[in-house]
């Protein structure tokens, strides 16, 4: 039974094999037509939109501080107040400085009087008095001479002692010196002071004047004045505070015009020119800014060059410290530019695209030039008028049948 069963299976297998060999050969499968998006390659102008961000700053700004120390007695301005250059912003206690001015003024008066006396010489009364003293000294000297001659004869005759003789001689010498002193005093009041005494008096007076001016200048510095036209951005202290030289009291800025310094990559700086306009965007508010300055050096840490842009802010509705976005359109050279997604690359510079040639995808090597936003410049491999596959390239092989999706290529 088992043998007959195996034999029957073998006969059935042979019949099946014969039947298969007698069938007609199968037809080849028809290739699938793939839907793609096509564009016509055209030469166009490269356009690059540059977007940069920067922080708004006052056009001019100053931290205002006292040049002298003291206690603040008044802060006249608050945040948001408009000020003009020269307006008083704050005051210090000035009592000590006022006393210094008064002392310096007194010294000027004193040294001025001395200088006048030296320059003008003695008064008439002083000259008369000096002459009288000379006359008095002359009379005393002449009398002493007569007395000495008489005493000298008596001494020679041994009528008086040596002591009396010496006293008369000494008295004569004293009267002679008194006469000389009186004559010198008269000479001083009639001839005036020496030139070096006049110079010394003049120098002392000039020094006193300088000291007074310095004291007055110091007193004036107890009033803090605005160095520019602008707005009080911040008040940095309070009344009653003791401040030193250079301690900031106010921050003042010109905010009717704001500025922003944009960090432009150094490779793109050639496209920026002074005087041109730039669009600024602050939370959807658009304004035109003007390029006023291009900085002369590259920031070594960022590789950028600062470009200063100024924007009008008459209503003060844009604020210092806010971040704005600047947009600038740069036109480049003409060429063949295609979308990035149309190019396939295997690395090491090997790139290719697919062109439409009679309904079939043709793999075409290309050379890539510059990158411009989301497009690549093609310097070789395709030409103007070619039908380029821009979507669906990742599903294509060389020679695949293709069909434009949605109608004719653009």
From TrEMBL:
The keyword Coiled coil applies. It comes from the Bacteria. InterPro entries: HH_YbhG-like (IPR059052), RND_pump_MFP (IPR006143), YknX-like_C (IPR058637). Residues 336-403 form the YknX-like C-terminal permuted SH3-like domain. Residues 1-22 form the signal peptide. Residues 134-185 form a coiled coil. Keywords: Coiled coil, Signal. Belongs to the membrane fusion protein (MFP) (TC 8.A.1) family. PANTHER family: EFFLUX RND TRANSPORTER PERIPLASMIC ADAPTOR SUBUNIT, MULTIDRUG RESISTANCE PROTEIN MDTA. This is Efflux RND transporter periplasmic adaptor subunit. It comes from Brevibacillus ruminantium.
């Amino acid at each position: 039974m088992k043998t007959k069963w195996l034999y029957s299976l073998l006969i059935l297998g042979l019949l099946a094999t014969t039947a298969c060999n007698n069938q007609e050969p199968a037809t080849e499968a028809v290739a699938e037509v793939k839907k793609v998006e096509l564009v016509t390659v055209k030469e166009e102008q490269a356009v690059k939109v540059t977007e940069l961000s920067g922080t708004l700053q006052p056009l001019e700004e100053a931290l205002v501080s006292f040049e002298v120390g003291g206690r603040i007695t008044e802060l006249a301005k608050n945040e948001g107040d408009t000020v003009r250059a020269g307006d008083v912003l704050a005051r210090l206690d000035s009592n000590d400085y006022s006393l210094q001015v008064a002392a310096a003024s007194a010294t000027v008066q004193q040294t001025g009087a001395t200088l006048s006396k030296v320059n003008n010489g003695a008064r008439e009364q002083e000259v008369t008095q000096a002459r009288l003293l000379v006359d008095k000294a002359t009379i005393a000297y002449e009398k002493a001479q007569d007395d000495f001659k008489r005493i000298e004869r008596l001494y020679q005759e041994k009528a008086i002692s040596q002591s009396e003789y010496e006293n008369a001689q000494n008295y004569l010498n004293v009267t002679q010196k008194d006469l000389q002193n009186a004559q010198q005093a008269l000479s001083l009041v009639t001839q005036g002071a020496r030139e070096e005494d006049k110079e010394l008096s003049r120098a002392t007076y000039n020094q006193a004047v300088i000291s007074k001016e310095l004291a007055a200048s110091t007193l004036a510095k107890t009033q803090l004045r605005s160095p520019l036209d602008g707005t009080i951005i911040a008040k940095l202290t309070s009344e009653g505070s003791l401040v030193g030289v250079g301690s900031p009291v106010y921050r003042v800025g010109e905010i009717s015009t704001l500025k922003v310094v944009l960090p432009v990559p150094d490779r793109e700086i050639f496209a920026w020119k002074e005087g041109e306009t730039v669009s600024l965007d602050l939370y959807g508010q658009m304004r035109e800014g003007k390029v006023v300055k291009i900085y002369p050096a590259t920031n070594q840490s960022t590789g950028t060059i600062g470009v200063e842009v100024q924007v009008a802010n008459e209503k003060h509705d844009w604020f210092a410290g806010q971040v704005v976005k600047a947009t600038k359109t740069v036109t480049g050279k003409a060429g063949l530019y295609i979308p990035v997604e149309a190019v396939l690359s295997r690395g090491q510079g090997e790139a290719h695209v697919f062109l439409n040639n009679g309904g079939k995808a043709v793999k075409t090597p290309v050379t890539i030039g510059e990158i411009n936003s989301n497009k690549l410049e093609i310097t070789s491999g395709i030409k103007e008028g070619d039908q380029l596959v821009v979507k669906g390239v990742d599903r294509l092989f060389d020679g695949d049948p293709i069909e434009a999706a949605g109608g004719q290529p653009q």
